Amino acid sequence: LRVNTSLDVLDLSSNNIEAHLADALRVNTSLERLDLWRNNIGPEGAAHLADALRVNTSLERLYLRRNNIGSEGAAHLADALRVNTSLEELYLEVNNIGPEGAAHLADALRVNTSLERLYLRRNNIGSEGAAHLADALRVSCISK
Fold it and tell me: 14: alpha, beta or left, given left = phi > 0 and alpha = psi -120 to 50?
């Protein structure tokens, strides 16, 4: 991936790879969709991916369903969303981010200019997390 300029979709679902692709994602300029569904990424792997998202300019869709990133991982991704300008869709279903993780994401949504779709199904965000997201949506660019 570091030198590849033609691959635009990579699906590595259910491979238990954690987040070993983060270094390559930093420099790759062709990948538009990365599916890491169910790969045991956790908060530490989310931190590595977030570092890559801060500088990556090609990735438009990132699928991180069922990776147990928790609120800590959501905080890392939220920090990256504050500066990322290419990501349009982020799938975070079933990651147990809770209300704290939802609050981190909500803060990022206030300033992010590229994200159009954010999927948070089955994350135990509760009323508190939903309130944070609702407040952020008043100024967010999410349109679809």
Answer: left
Helices (H), the chain: 22-27, 42-55, 70-81, 98-109, 126-137
What does pTM read for this prediction?
Answer: 0.92
By C-alpha distance, which of 36, 75, 42, 76 is closest to 59?
A: 36
Of the candidates 122, 65, 61, 109, the one whose C-alpha atom is nearest the C-alpha of residue 88 is 61
In order along its 144 residues, the chain shows pLDDT tens digits of 667 778 999 999 999 886 678 888 999 999 999 999 999 999 999 999 999 999 999 999 999 999 999 999 999 999 999 999 999 999 999 999 999 999 999 999 999 999 999 999 999 999 999 999 999 988 866 655
Q: Which amino acid is at 78?
A: A
